[in-house]
Amino acid sequence: MSAFDIFQTVEATMKKITVDGFGDETASTTFTVDIDPVLGRRRIFTNDQEEIEGFETVISPNSNIDLTHERWDLTYNGRTYQIEGLEPFYVIGTDEIDHYEATLR
Predict the structure, then answer these.
(1) How far is the C-alpha of 46 from the C-alpha of 16, rounded, in Å?
(2) What is the distance between the alpha carbons of residues 16 and 20, in angstroms, rounded to a whole number?
(3) Comparing C-alpha atoms, which of 29, 100, 30 is closest to residue 60?
(4) Interacting residues of 21 by C-beta distance below 8 A, sequence separation 6+
(5) What CATH topology corresponds to 3-104?
(6) pTM (whole model) above 0.85
């Protein structure tokens, strides 16, 4: 049993967003993940050092998630959120990802 198994999860759609040379955004990869939608509110600093407050959520592990990519969206319950502060949590003593925690804004 992993730590992720204790969460009450629902399905959401995660999108890898790419930006072309003209600044146009497109979803280059779209896939389904399980999330625990709202654990509470969290304040973080983005990669651009902007302080934001958003909803903290837990996301299931998925091989499509690339931590080096900066722009992700998550659609849940008919609303699209931008993912900030995507952090992996590993199974203790391994390099296997148990779940991710992120802030949605």
Answers:
(1) 17
(2) 13
(3) 100
(4) none
(5) Thrombin, subunit H (2.40.10)
(6) no
C-alpha closest to that of 86 among 51, 58, 53, 52: 58
**Rounded distance between C-alpha atoms, residue 97 and residue 33, angstroms:** 14
Instruction: Supply φ then ψ for residue 16, to 5 degrees.
Output: -85, 115
Beta strands in 1-105, from DSSP E residues, in sequence order? 10-19, 25-45, 51-59, 72-76, 79-90, 97-104
How many other CB atoms are there within 10 angstroms of residue 59's CB atom? 26
Q: pLDDT digit of tens for each residue in the chain (105 aa)? A: 555 555 677 899 999 999 988 989 999 999 999 998 766 777 777 777 778 788 889 999 999 999 999 899 999 989 999 998 899 999 999 999 999 999 898
Quote the tokens at residue 52: 């934001």
Task: List Cβ neighbours of 11 (8 Å cut-off, separation of 6 or more).
Answer: 32, 33, 34, 35
Cα 72 to the center of its chain, rounded Å = 7
